[in-house]
Specification:
The protein is an all-beta fold. The protein has no helices and seven strands. The protein has a four-stranded antiparallel sheet, with no helix packed on it. A three-stranded antiparallel sheet has the order 1-2-5, with no helix packed on it. It is globular.
Protein backbone atom coordinates (compact mmCIF):
# COMPACT_ATOMS: atom_id res chain seq x y z
CA UNK A 1 0.00 0.00 0.00
CA UNK A 2 1.16 3.53 -0.78
CA UNK A 3 -0.78 6.55 0.47
CA UNK A 4 0.24 10.17 -0.07
CA UNK A 5 -0.16 12.46 2.96
CA UNK A 6 1.33 15.66 1.54
CA UNK A 7 4.85 15.53 2.99
CA UNK A 8 5.12 11.77 3.43
CA UNK A 9 4.05 8.42 2.06
CA UNK A 10 2.43 5.74 4.19
CA UNK A 11 3.95 2.46 3.07
CA UNK A 12 2.88 -1.05 3.98
CA UNK A 13 4.20 -4.16 2.27
CA UNK A 14 4.06 -7.93 2.62
CA UNK A 15 7.73 -8.33 1.74
CA UNK A 16 10.96 -6.41 2.22
CA UNK A 17 11.00 -3.76 -0.48
CA UNK A 18 12.67 -0.59 -1.63
CA UNK A 19 10.67 2.62 -2.03
CA UNK A 20 12.03 4.50 -5.05
CA UNK A 21 10.90 7.93 -6.17
CA UNK A 22 11.83 9.08 -9.66
CA UNK A 23 11.27 12.36 -11.46
CA UNK A 24 9.59 12.76 -14.86
CA UNK A 25 12.92 12.01 -16.61
CA UNK A 26 13.25 8.71 -14.72
CA UNK A 27 16.08 9.90 -12.44
CA UNK A 28 16.03 8.50 -8.92
CA UNK A 29 15.57 11.32 -6.40
CA UNK A 30 14.87 9.27 -3.27
CA UNK A 31 15.30 5.69 -2.11
CA UNK A 32 14.53 3.97 1.21
CA UNK A 33 14.41 0.35 2.36
CA UNK A 34 10.99 -0.67 3.68
CA UNK A 35 10.62 -3.69 5.96
CA UNK A 36 7.67 -6.06 6.11
CA UNK A 37 4.99 -5.06 8.58
CA UNK A 38 2.60 -2.36 9.65
CA UNK A 39 2.32 0.91 7.74
CA UNK A 40 5.40 3.10 8.02
CA UNK A 41 5.41 6.86 7.48
CA UNK A 42 8.28 7.78 5.16
CA UNK A 43 8.97 11.53 5.21
CA UNK A 44 9.95 12.74 1.78
CA UNK A 45 12.58 15.33 0.88
CA UNK A 46 11.38 18.72 -0.37
CA UNK A 47 10.62 18.13 -4.05
CA UNK A 48 10.48 20.80 -6.73
CA UNK A 49 7.21 21.27 -8.55
CA UNK A 50 6.78 18.45 -11.05
CA UNK A 51 5.51 14.94 -11.58
CA UNK A 52 7.07 12.09 -9.61
CA UNK A 53 6.54 8.34 -9.54
CA UNK A 54 6.90 6.32 -6.35
CA UNK A 55 7.36 2.59 -6.72
CA UNK A 56 7.82 -0.25 -4.27
CA UNK A 57 10.38 -2.65 -5.73
CA UNK A 58 10.87 -6.22 -4.54
CA UNK A 59 14.23 -7.97 -4.04
CA UNK A 60 14.41 -8.70 -7.78
CA UNK A 61 13.97 -4.99 -8.61
CA UNK A 62 10.47 -5.42 -10.04
CA UNK A 63 7.93 -2.71 -9.28
CA UNK A 64 5.12 -4.23 -7.24
CA UNK A 65 3.17 -1.00 -6.76
CA UNK A 66 3.33 2.45 -8.38
CA UNK A 67 1.99 5.83 -7.33
CA UNK A 68 2.24 9.18 -9.13
CA UNK A 69 2.18 12.56 -7.40
CA UNK A 70 2.85 16.19 -8.17
CA UNK A 71 5.49 17.92 -6.05
CA UNK A 72 4.90 21.39 -4.68
Amino acid sequence: MLAWTGDALLVSTGQNSVLCITDAAGRRVFERDVAVGAAQRVVLPQLSCGVYCAALRNAQGEAVLRFAAVGR
